[in-house]
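<amino_acid_chain>
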Amino acid sequence: MTPSKRTDPIPEELVERMRIMSANRISYKIIHELTGVSSGSISKYCKDVIKLPKQMCHNPFILMSDEEMAKIYKDQQRTPENMELAKSLGNIDYFKEQYEEGTRFDGPLSKISLFDLQELMQEPTDYHSPLKIDQWMRYYLEGKEGAFLTKKPHLWCDLQIQMFDLHQEHKRIMIETFRDAGKTMVANGILARAICENRENNYFIMSETKTKAAKRIKQIGDVLVSNKKLIADYGFLPNIKRFKGLKQSWKSDEITVKRHFKQTDPSLMGFSTESPAATGAHFAGGVFDDVWSFSLERNSMRNKEKFFGWYDGELEGCLEDAWDF
């Protein structure tokens, strides 16, 4: 706000407002920016104010009425100083107003709703993270954000980090561990990262049944729809017209994200070992997760012939230079 010379006495209400701000440890410079009162006058009226403990202090904008806030936004000049002030205060409206379509959102994610972030980030950013795969997983899919991969906030263990490293070092790997070692969460994380980093590619996941494959796909879909960190950096990638929170309109066995070029194949599709389907898609990578079971073992020879006949005759030709896990 442009300061103006005051010839009339400062209203008592404004003096009280300045004293409240000063008590909340707000600097004279910021009080001057918000009120237009000179630093000398502020010092005159506020020098004897007792400061509140830091844990009791409030943001200066919270101390102002809606009308005062509206007047500030209406009258405030967009000077670099004023913009820097709004940014330093973490005002979410500042970050929303300054956002440029197709770029990463650098505002405080705790102050913007998921729905507003989805609306703001409709255009993908084409961002590619410099983080290594284990760092990527810990930044985007750990703690509360990782709850989309499991029932509660998730922390990656050392064994899972070793699985990520093996995936990076080898094009095709097979991992066999004890039960509940976290292999499925690793596979979900690998696919979520691959889709974000290379959204022009196609990927697949195969499980024992179509229901299991669909469950894995839903978990990955939840990450793309609801993970604020991912949306802020990569944009809102799901190619769906209607969305709200965790609700999706994808098919249960496939996910499609926004791409530069229109493609007929989904970004991620699911297959079942029991009924492998023919496909003409070309894949950049795929995950085989719990593909065999006791029910398939009952007629082991016939089922194996059916599965490997499909794998060798159809799927192998679609893998080209693909990785698999």
Notes: The chain has two domains: 12-89, 133-324.
